[in-house]
Amino acid sequence: MNGMTATQLDTQRVWDDAVRVLDEVGLEIGGEVLPRAVEGVFPIEQGRVRIAPDIANEYADEIRERFGGPTEVEPVRAPRLYNLPLNPYWLDPSDGQIKPNDLDTVIRNTKLVYQVASESDGLVGPSVAGVPQDIPAEIQFLMVYATECIYAPHPGAWGLMHSRRSMELIFEAADIMGAGKMVCAEPISPLRFGGQSVDLAIEAGREGIPVTVDCMPVLGVTAPADYHMAWSQSVAENLGAYILLRACGVERVGAPSFRLFLPNPSAMTPYFSAPQHVAVLCMRRAVRAIFGLPTDGGEVMLVASKAPDAQAVMEKAACCALAKAHGFKHLEGAGMLWIDEVFSPQQLMIDVEIARFVSATDVSIAPPSGDIVSAVRDGLDAGSFLGSDLMLERFREFAWDAELSDLGPRGSWQGDHTTLLNRAAELARAKAAAYTYELSDHRRDAMDALIARATSEFTK
């Protein structure tokens, strides 16, 4: 299941080199809080913290003890798709144009995602469908989280903050809902740990709020153009960030992500739908196994296509099928175009169809159900087997129940009026209109008051 690429990766070499990098190169530190917090705890030379091998091993053991679990790859019957909430744009099906999100559009598309999730029997894991661009930048993340609180029956936690004030407002929203809190620290490759997200993570983490670490090196761009060396850098960044947060008194640090992305040299961006990306996910699985961490998800539905076109379908379908074959169940990027910048209602409908199609490739063959001679004679007498009791009882086992795909005869086809994109747009509109949940108790009043106060504060 792991594939040859995972078995060819020398994980012992990756670990040994990561330890060397931490000891001999170290992490560049910055921000207001971190340098003071680690001074006297670790050697600091020219703004870089070096971490000795015994300390690296100690905290690697801690990660194993706190988060380790079974790392065996289990077969996947149905992938689970997730959209992402960070897109500033959406693609309008009415004219095919990419447009900045406004709040009304974000709400409408969020209702679509949650309606699709409610009907999908676990196939879709929903989130808010974008960041509104028609409100002050300082409270855009607050509005994303507030949208989740208002339209999601069970809102979670939001970890990205624009500033300390943004964090305070988001935490106030969480308190209104009785929901959890978290802060995401996003170190910058190569080997830098500092800045506002780190300062906020330390500040909140010292108060007992969970903190996550997510380093995102890109092969050949912000990491060496060699799989072994790049993975060693990823391990050094992730483990080093975890150690520094723990040294600052943050107790509830989550398991590091240990990620590595492929490059798209044409745009100098990560390339999640590259042919090699699933192989890199298999390598990630092998690297995370060093720490006893399971790996059952990836970003394989984040594509380079800018429209819900043939390229998008090619990238998403191929990656979805490969991910399933290699045991990756949780797939990021439902409805997303150009990585995570654009949400498309049509593409969401197509992505669900792709996931249903890929799931249907698992075929279970039932035992023989009767006498072959009798069954054949009945079919011959009737002129076909279509009306047989066996067909009526069993046809759902092997007939593909398409929602978007046109399986009708050629004569019924009406050209552009019955294209898949048009059917997807109509289906998306209907589903968005069908969603009914909306927060309406005393918490809604408190949330509306918070939004009004925050909007006033940042529009003076």
Describe the structure.
- With 460 residues, the protein is an alpha/beta fold.
- It contains 16 helices and 16 strands.
- The strands form 5 sheets. The chain has a 4-stranded mixed β-sheet with strand order 2-3-1-9. It has a 4-stranded parallel β-sheet with strand order 7-4-14-13. Strands 6-5-16-15 form a 4-stranded mixed β-sheet.
- The termini are far apart.
Keywords:
460 residues; alpha/beta; 16 strands; four-stranded mixed beta sheet
Approximate shape? globular
Distance between the termini: 57 Å
pLDDT averaged residue by residue: 93
Instruction: Indicate the percent of residues in helices.
Output: 40-55%
How many H/I helices?
16
The secondary structure category is alpha/beta
Low-confidence stretches: none
> Major sheet, described briefly?
4 strands, mixed
Radius of gyration: 25 Å
Number of strands: 16
Beta-strand residue fraction: 5-15%
What's the short version?
Helices cover 45% and strands 9% of the residues. With 460 residues, the protein is an alpha/beta fold.
List the helices and strands and how they pair.
Layout: H1 3-8, H2 11-24, E1 27-29, H3 34-38, E2 44-45, E3 48-49, H4 53-67, E4 80-82, E5 89-92, E6 97-100, H5 103-119, E7 124-125, H6 140-151, H7 164-177, E8 183-185, E9 192-193, H8 196-205, E10 211-213, H9 227-247, E11 263-264, E12 269-270, H10 277-289, E13 297-298, H11 310-325, E14 330-332, E15 336-337, E16 342-343, H12 345-359, H13 372-382, H14 389-394, H15 420-434, H16 442-457
Parallel strand pairs: 1-9, 4-7, 4-14, 5-16, 8-10, 13-14
Antiparallel strand pairs: 1-3, 2-3, 5-6, 11-12, 15-16
Helix pairs in contact: 2-9, 4-9, 5-15, 6-7, 7-16, 11-12, 12-15
